[in-house]
């Protein structure tokens, strides 16, 4: 297992190019199950989650290989295995996205229930409700969901797919994929509007699916009898982009984040404007401008954030925003409405000298002028990113342990940060023992 050793306090400057989006590529890879023809993803990012999805697909008897140019080629056999095992689903909840396509293509899907994760319960009841609305019989046995299509295959249905915290991204993706091969028309009310869902819809459309209303909460799908292959480049990763923008904002340097879609980050940019962090925006780039975040007169202004489904402020940038607010001038309030327990990073940021108090779904952050380097433990992907950002500005050395989390969603993060002027090294780690 590796750790990142960061020497804080070095200004960042330069350009970083954003990769294909993790949360777009995972369902797109699953969509390859809907056809026997080849699906090619030219810009599949080099992430461990992508490797895990490739391994899930191989277990189902698909071939999923990368060419030398980095493109991912997936072809699913005529006869597929119908069961996704606990080993992979446990590693990555995104594996659940194979349920819809597998059910639609083969009439049956057995998927391990993902279980909880560090930031809460994360149920899949809405995915199951959607499959039932398409006529599937669903039961849970021995830790597995078993979904079976009726004789004659899935049929179109009308459903409301949101729960108490709003719409579901992978649930919408799952039902949309299943409905492409169902007989007749499906209407999803309360559908997720995230760009990753739109991207999946575009991929399915190039495979021959008939979908209307992408990007709106009402998606309509007219089932077709079969789908074909496609070549689909996924959208740039808005969360990776937002993380580098926040790195620039925290270090006060000129960081140009290229190959991104700024309109996918409008909630973040709005909050940065409010926080008086200087930046400029172009059609496919965002650039933070030099300033002195340590200068008492120029520190970021304490700015409240509440996470919401898209186009609201993304939960996947909540931890990184909190890292910025630890240095703000004043008290800010952060409310996490998507995953109320996604706050594992608070204790670790506190070890770096941050002043944060949690009350239920809310965190209250009293900004401080300086953080100081320490040993910290990454608990999940975005929490790791927040700790790396804080380490970049903390005085002295910060060691971020359990950094494998970060490789799930950030391609070669230390290399990219070094290119921007950070002093950071990946070294082999003896992970400190758990304590009770
Ligand atoms: N929910 C239910 N029932 C369901 C599904 C979801 O109650 O059947 C609830 C969840 O508990 C949560 C809310 O609905 O409160 C939203 O969850 P959603 O289903 O949208 O999350 P997801 O699709 O499982 C994706 C991303 C997450 C991201 C969320 C929210 C992928 C692979 N994962 O998860 O990404 O946080 O949407 O935007 O697309 C990450 O990249 O770090 C990450 C965790």
Walk me through this protein's architecture.
It is a single chain. The protein has 436 residues and is an alpha/beta fold. It is 30% helix and 23% strand. The protein has 14 helices and 24 strands. The chain has a 4-stranded mixed sheet, covered by helices on one side. The protein has a 4-stranded mixed sheet with strand order 2-15-17-16. A 4-stranded mixed sheet has the order 4-5-3-14. Strand 10, helix 6 and strand 11 (185-189) form a beta-alpha-beta unit. It is elongated, with a radius of gyration of 22 Å. The model has no long low-confidence stretch (mean pLDDT 94). Uridine-diphosphate-2(N-acetylglucosaminyl) butyric acid binds next to helix 1, helix 5, helix 6 and helix 12.
Largest sheet: 4 strands, mixed
Q: Which ligands, by name, code or SMILES, are bound?
A: uridine-diphosphate-2(N-acetylglucosaminyl) butyric acid
Number of strands: 24
Number of helices: 14
Q: Terminal Cα separation, in Å?
A: 21 Å
Residues in helix, %: 25-40%
What are the segments in which pLDDT stays under 50 over at least 5 consecutive residues? none
Topology (SSEs and partners):
Blueprint: E1 2-7, E2 14-17, H1 22-31, E3 39-41, H2 48-59, E4 62-66, E5 72-76, E6 83-84, H3 86-91, H4 99-106, E7 108-112, H5 125-133, E8 137-141, E9 144-148, E10 158-160, H6 169-180, E11 185-189, H7 195-206, E12 210-212, E13 218-222, E14 230-231, H8 238-251, E15 255-258, H9 266-274, E16 279-281, E17 285-288, E18 305-306, H10 318-325, E19 331-335, H11 345-351, E20 355-359, E21 362-366, E22 375-377, H12 381-393, E23 397-401, H13 404-407, H14 413-419, E24 423-428
This protein binds uridine-diphosphate-2(N-acetylglucosaminyl) butyric acid.
Uridine-diphosphate-2(N-acetylglucosaminyl) butyric acid binds next to helix 1, helix 5, helix 6 and helix 12.
């Amino acid at each position: 297992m590796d750790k990142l050793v960061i020497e804080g306090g070095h200004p960042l400057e330069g350009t970083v190019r954003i990769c294909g989006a993790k949360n777009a590529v995972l369902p797109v890879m699953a969509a390859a199950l809907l056809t026997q023809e080849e699906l090619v993803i030219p810009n599949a990012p080099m992430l461990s989650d992508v490797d895990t999805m490739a391994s899930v697909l191989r277990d189902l008897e698909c071939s999923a290989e990368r060419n030398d140019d980095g493109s991912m080629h997936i072809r699913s056999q005529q006869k597929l295995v119908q069961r996704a095992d606990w080993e992979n689903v446990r590693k990555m909840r995104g594996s659940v996205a194979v349920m819809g396509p597998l059910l639609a293509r083969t009439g049956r899907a057995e998927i391990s229930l993902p279980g909880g994760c560090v930031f809460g319960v994360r149920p899949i009841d809405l995915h199951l409700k959607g499959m039932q609305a398409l006529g599937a019989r669903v039961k849970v046995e021995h830790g597995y969901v078993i979904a079976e299509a009726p004789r004659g295959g899935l049929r179109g249905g009308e459903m409301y797919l949101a729960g108490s915290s709003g719409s579901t991204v992978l649930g919408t993706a799952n039902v949309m994929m299943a409905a492409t091969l169902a007989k007749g028309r499906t209407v999803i009310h309360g559908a997720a509007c995230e760009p990753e869902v739109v991207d999946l819809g575009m991929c399915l459309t190039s495979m021959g699916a008939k979908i209307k209303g992408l990007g709106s909460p009402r998606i309509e799908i007219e089932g077709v009898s079969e789908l074909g292959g496609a070549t689909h480049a996924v959208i740039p990763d808005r969360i990776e982009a937002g993380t580098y923008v926040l790195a620039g904002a925290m270090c006060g340097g000129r960081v140009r984040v290229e190959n991104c879609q700024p309109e996918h980050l409008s909630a973040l940019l709005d909050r940065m404007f409010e926080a008086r962090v200087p930046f400029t925006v172009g059609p496919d780039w965002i650039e933070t401008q030099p300033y002195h975040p340590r200068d008492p007169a120029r520190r970021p202004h304490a700015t409240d954030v509440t996470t919401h489904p898209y186009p609201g402020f993304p939960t996947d940038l909540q931890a990184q925003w909190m890292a910025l607010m630890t240095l703000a001038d004043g008290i800010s309030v952060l409310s996490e409405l998507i995953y109320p327990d996604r706050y594992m990073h608070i204790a670790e940021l506190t070890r770096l000298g941050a002043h944060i108090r949690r009350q239920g779904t809310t965190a209250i952050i009293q900004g401080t002028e300086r953080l100081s380097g320490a040993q910290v433990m990454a608990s999940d992907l975005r929490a790791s990113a927040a700790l790396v950002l804080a380490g970049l500005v903390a005085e002295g050395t910060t060691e971020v342990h359990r950094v494998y989390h970060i490789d799930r969603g950030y391609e070669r993060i230390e290399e990219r940060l070094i290119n921007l002027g950070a002093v950071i090294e990946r070294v082999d780690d003896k992970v400190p023992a758990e304590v009770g």
